[in-house]
Write a structure and sequence with these properties.
Structural class: alpha/beta
Number of strands: 14
Low-confidence stretches: none
Radius of gyration: 24 Å
Bound molecules: nicotinamide-adenine-dinucleotide, uridine-5'-diphosphate-glucuronic acid
Largest sheet: 6 strands, parallel
Helix content: 40-55%
Strand order of the largest sheet: 3-2-1-4-5-6
Distance between the termini: 71 Å
Length: 455
């Protein structure tokens, strides 16, 4: 029986391997991690991450052909194919601090693979990495004793959080980068055969390793760029009485542009967009491509501008002061259907509000534990309340930072009655019924649309 190992049991490693195990019942799939608590959680019915449909997917194969373990060395020895799906955060120290990818976890796994391998392996880069990282990995793997052959492939992951299971089941494409050598092509074919258990062959794309590595950074940069583009126009819409949703619809109906990822918002978050763009920027800078770097960096600059603009607008609408006013931030996750708060726009929004001495209270159905960790340094300057009605009671304003479905159907009459008047609502996701809220009595401030004010 073929054995697949995945090093790193995070948001990508766990769900991806659960899908492979489900679709390839004849393959043994082992997921290892140095974080024993995380591994224990994967083995229980309290998974370490929240993702719709993931519980059922894991349960279908757990301890049949899907195993979670902390024994990295044994896993390496047993495996034919090794996916590396460890974290590659932004480097926060030394050269490239704040931009470059921190490759320390990545390099450590390369050395572990080298130290524990006694038979030939296909090593698959699943993590998102700077272009030409595979070259460094190959150098480490092929240093010293050369009795074992390692073939390194790039197979970036395109799943989005909140829809991970759906995305894995039905991916737009599976990208497999390999070297144009006999062993490289054979390795690409072996990995393609794994995915072909459920992905149509015409959606399995093979390229060079470098194209594959760059395509992942490029895809995230393009997606984030669309959001920054529409967000930049949202500021102009607010000045000119154009409506950003109408503009997005009109623009998106052009088949060359497409309609998705054009929802103006308080800003994009998530563990990867900012990290991957800054990684791209750093890469361009290190090749002396200053103009290219500046071009992409503007996508991140625009996002920070949008997050700050959201709070500045709140302050200006609320008579230029929010000091001492209770403001309920609805949603802390970086998007709906996830408990993940990494780089969530709500973090910057809350910090800005606290700086302005607003009595800020955060509510979220899944992300309050993470919110407490993200804002731990603010101590009791900020409060956490799982019940949105309690969070809103006595508030001057509501600020929607995450488009949770349940926020669309709250009893806003009841909420309005419990708030200080004039009551404000700032919809950072354009997900509420603004006309209805205005009729209830709220002063409504959407993104990129005319505000509806009784004042
Ligand atoms: P994560 O932080 O959730 O998981 C990474 C795991 O790797 C952690 O559990 C960590 O303990 C483990 N790890 C680190 N070093 C290890 C080692 N030496 N041995 C064993 N385990 C080790 O990260 P993630 O969100 O799953 O992301 C992983 C990679 O995938 C990143 O490069 C990211 O950019 C990329 N990616 C993420 C997403 C996403 O939606 N989160 C989507 C596509 C691609
Ligand atoms: C993103 C990509 O969509 C995935 O393809 C990629 O694999 C992943 O990054 C990664 O590399 O980690 P993710 O960050 O999970 O996935 O979620 P998205 O759905 O892309 O949303 C990112 C952010 O953009 C969220 O804060 C979301 O609310 C925001 N967004 C999205 C908007 O503000 N407007 C939109 O129109 C779409």
């Amino acid at each position: 029986m073929k054995t697949i190992l995945c090093i790193g049991a995070g948001y990508v490693g766990g769900p991806t391997m659960a899908m492979i195990a489900r679709k390839c019942p004849g393959t043994r799939v082992i997921v290892v991690d140095i974080d024993a608590a995380r591994i224990k959680a994967w083995q229980s019915d309290q998974l370490p991450i929240y993702e719709p449909g993931l519980g059922e997917l894991v349960q279908a194969s757990l301890n049949k052909n899907l195993f979670f373990s902390t024994d990295v060395a044994q896993g390496i020895r047993d495996a034919d194919i090794i996916f590396v799906s460890v974290n590659t955060p932004t480097k926060m120290f030394g050269q490239g601090a704040g931009r470059a990818a921190d490759l320390q976890y990545w390099e450590k796994t390369a050395r572990e693979i080298k130290a524990n391998s006694t038979s030939d392996k296909i090593v698959v880069e699943k993590s998102t990495l700077p272009v030409r990282t595979a070259e460094a990995m190959e150098r480490i793997l092929h240093s010293g004793n050369k009795t074992v052959h390692f073939e390194v492939l790039s197979n970036p992951e395109f799943l989005a959080e909140g829809t991970a299971v759906k995305d894995l089941e039905n991916p737009d494409r599976v990208l497999i980068g390999g070297h144009a050598t006999d062993t490289g092509r054979r390795a690409q074919a072996a990995l393609a055969d794994v995915y072909a258990h459920w992905v149509p062959r015409n959606r399995i794309l093979t390229t060079s390793v470098w194209s594959s590595e760059l395509s992942k950074l490029a895809a995230n940069a393009f997606l984030a760029q669309r959001i920054s583009s529409i967000n930049s126009l949202s500021a102009l819409c607010e000045r000119t009485e154009a409506d950003v949703s109408e503009v997005a619809r009109a623009v998106g109906m052009d088949a060359r542009i497409g309609s998705r990822f054009l929802n103006a918002s308080v800003g994009f978050g998530g563990s990867c967009f900012k990290k991957d763009i800054l990684n791209l920027v750093y890469l361009c800078q290190s090749y002396g491509l200053t103009e290219v770097a500046d071009y992409w960096e503007q996508v991140v600059t625009m996002n920070e501008y949008q997050e700050d603009r959201f709070v500045r607008k709140m302050i200006s609408a609320m008579f230029n002061t929010v000091a001492g006013k209770r403001i309920a931030v609805l949603g802390f996750a970086f998007k709906a259907d996830t408990g993940d708060t990494r780089e969530s726009p709500a973090i910057r929004v809350c910090r800005f509000l606290v700086d302005e001495r607003a009595a800020t209270v955060v509510t979220d159905p899944k992300a309050l534990d993470n919110a407490r960790k993200d804002l731990a340094d603010l101590g009791d300057k900020i409060a956490y309340e799982p019940d949105p009605y309690k969070a809103a009671a006595g508030a001057h304003a509501l600020a929607v930072a995450t488009d949770w479905e349940e926020y669309k159907t709250l009893d806003y009459r009841k909420i309005y009655a419990s708030m200080v008047k004039p009551a404000f609502i700032f919809d950072g996701r354009n997900c509420l019924n603004h006309k209805e809220l205005f009729e209830i009595g709220f002063n409504v401030y959407p993104i990129g649309k005319v505000s509806l004010s009784h004042l």
